[in-house]
Amino acid sequence: MTQPTDIRRVRARRPRLLDLFSCAGAAAVGYHRASFDVDGCDIAHRPNYPFDYHHGDALAYLAALIASGEIKRYAFVHASPPCQDKCTLTVGTNASQGWGGTHVDLVAPTRELLAATGLPYVIEQPNGRAEIRKDLSLCGEMFGLGVIRHRNFELGGWTTTQPAHVPHRGRVRGWRHGRFYDGPYVAAYGNGGGKPTVSELQTAMGITWTDVREELTEAIPPAYTEWIGRAFLAHIALEAAA
């Protein structure tokens, strides 16, 4: 697996970001490219995570950082709480198969703890979540990627301008209701139904440091968080100049 050449370089005076529910670090890499140093936390063992990370429960870890005052090391927090409880796929297509409704919804407790930090934050979730405040929506076509992968982001303690949604160039490749459709995008979830290979997923999302399919299908493209990170830095620069 290829490591981006600048992933582990330590740079002076870069703001530090806490990446909660970090998975394999796709969000973290985007923020790093936007000039943040990043620490992650995930309950699963993530040997492919390209930065320092804490192996443990994200909310318990955040609560401990708040209680100890160590949260003050950070300038910004990103959280991607699990979405399986009420995401569109789980309550729609998968509902007929008996899936959904058994996962713990962590959005509300995540928001509560993030508010207690006093820090600006982002909560990332897919389309179809009633619980999230949709302050920002991003799509792979905005960045010329090979996935659509719409994602909504709740912004706490800061704001930015919503970029224009770029019309899609075609369909997502794969089987739908017994018919195969071709198109410029691959489906970054699941295994069957004409789903892409691991190599295709890596190329489509711009992720090179993990070849674990589960990590790729749970990831958001680093281009999203690079854009968010730069938008946040522009926001605080404007505040400082005011």
Which features would summarize this protein structure in a list?
242 residues, alpha/beta, Rossmann fold, seven-stranded mixed beta sheet, two-stranded antiparallel ribbon, 28% helix, 17% strand, disordered N terminus
Structure in a nutshell:
GO terms for molecular function: methyltransferase activity. The chain has helices at 26-33, 58-68, 88-91, 107-117, 198-205, 213-218, 222-241, and strands spanning 16-20, 37-42, 52-55, 76-79, 121-126, 136-138, 151-156, 174-176, 179-181.
What does this structure look like?
This protein has a domain at about 15-160 and about 220-240: Vaccinia Virus protein VP39 (Rossmann fold, 3-Layer(aba) Sandwich). It has seven helices and nine strands; from the N terminus they run E-H-E-E-H-E-H-H-E-E-E-E-E-H-H-H. About 30% of the residues lie in helices and about 15% in strands. Strand 1, helix 1 (about 25-35) and strand 2 form a beta-alpha-beta unit. The protein has helices at about 25-35, 60-70, 90, 105-115, 200-205, 215-220, 220-240; strands spanning about 15-20, 35-40, 50-55, 75-80, 120-125, 135-140, 150-155, 175, 180. With about 240 residues, the protein is an alpha/beta fold.
